[in-house]
Amino acid sequence: MNLKSGEKKNQIGSVQRPGDTRWGSHLRSLYIVRNMFKPILLVLEVILNEKNNLSFKATADGAYDMMKSFEFVFILHFMIELLEVTDDLCGILQCKNQDILDAMDVIINTKELIRRYKESGYDKLIDEVKGFCEKYEIEIPDMNGPRCSGRGRVTKGNSITLDHHYRFYIFIETTDLILQEMKNRFNDDAIDLLRLSSALEPRDGYKSFSIDNICELMEKFYPDDFTSQEKFCMKYQLELFELDIRRSELFQNVSTLAELCQLLFKTGKKMNYYLVDRLVRLIWTLPVSTATTERAFSSIMIVKTRLRNKMKDDFLASSLLMYIKKEIAEKFDVESIIDEFDGMKKRRVQFKMLKCNKVCDKS
Questions:
Q1: Any long-range contacts for 157-164 (C-beta under 8 Å, 24+ apart)?
Q2: H/E element holding 101?
């Protein structure tokens, strides 16, 4: 085969390293391994045939044997299909502004898809794995034969077949772990919180507005944020609020809790419906999206470098705040910062005078 020399020549693609916070990067990495399976094997064979770099040869030998095994191909395809089910949920939760109703629907639907995949996805998966093994000349073991333990030895009296091992100890056990993890992350209380919070969503002309659900939300999840008298008055305030939003065109045009909160402030009706406004603000602070958190963790790697590793927590928090909210920080100028710092307390150095002197020197 003739190869052209030069930068980025003969390059089919590159293997992507998965990220620490985004599971979607794991799915893309697995896609690349599956699509570039043969080129990866060819590269490993080249490394094995080299006379030098014995350490690389040992690593390549282990990787080559592992990739040419049926178990590796099975787990590769299994993880791709499993991550494809959860990929949409990961993407939605990573949006900067996420709607509570959409997030709740996607969580419920994702759980149901995983349950269906657990019940009926194994046979299809095995057929795909066998087809992939035949394409790349990988040995397909007898699925009805006994499973080997240790160094390829069959344990005497072992009744566990390979099919049983892959079906129950890998496929079903992994899907059960994913379902259990989703149950822990999005438990019944969390789903109930999202369901009750949707009662204040203004979307579709306040279609889901329910006074009973809103009062239940306040009693169940925010008991310390309202006094006993306020809890008693909430129902009547909600009745007035419902009549107002049904008649007002301004309130009919909003579609998110953020817009509703801003409209209550602009129209001054937050004073009339102060309990509703407080509850809307509490719901608005729910961490439905993980995007802001991931941005904060990514910013730590940029701000707290090796040379700044000894900075204290207060200075680090201030630096991260300025970096994350850079669109707001760009509006500040040096003069306003000096004025703010100078007005905090009396100091020996007069910052304003120094500023005037610098302007005179420049002129």
A1: none
A2: helix 100-120
The sign of the CA dihedral 118, 122, 124, 128 is: positive
Number of neighbouring beta carbons within 10 Å of residue 220: 12
pLDDT at site 80: 94
**Tokens describing residue 274:** 């102060």
- The pLDDT tens digits for 172-227 are 999 999 999 888 877 778 778 878 888 888 888 888 889 999 999 999 989 999 99
pLDDT of residue 304: 72
HSE-up of 49 (CA within 13 Å, CB side)?
6
Output the six-digit token pair for 32. Answer: 């690349």
Count of alpha carbons within 13 angstroms of residue 82, beta-carbon side? 22
Distance between CA atoms of 88 and 107, rounded to whole angstroms?
A: 10
CA 48, CA 226: separation in Å to the nearest integer?
70
Least Cα distance to 77 among 198, 166, 158 occurs for 166
The two tokens of residue 72 are 């590796």
Q: Which residues pair with 146 in a beta bridge?
A: 161
Phi, psi of 80 (to 5 degrees): -65, -50
pTM value is: 0.64
Number of H helices, E strands in the chain: 20, 2
pLDDT digits (tens, 9 = 90+) for 225-266: 999 999 999 999 999 999 998 888 888 888 888 888 888 989
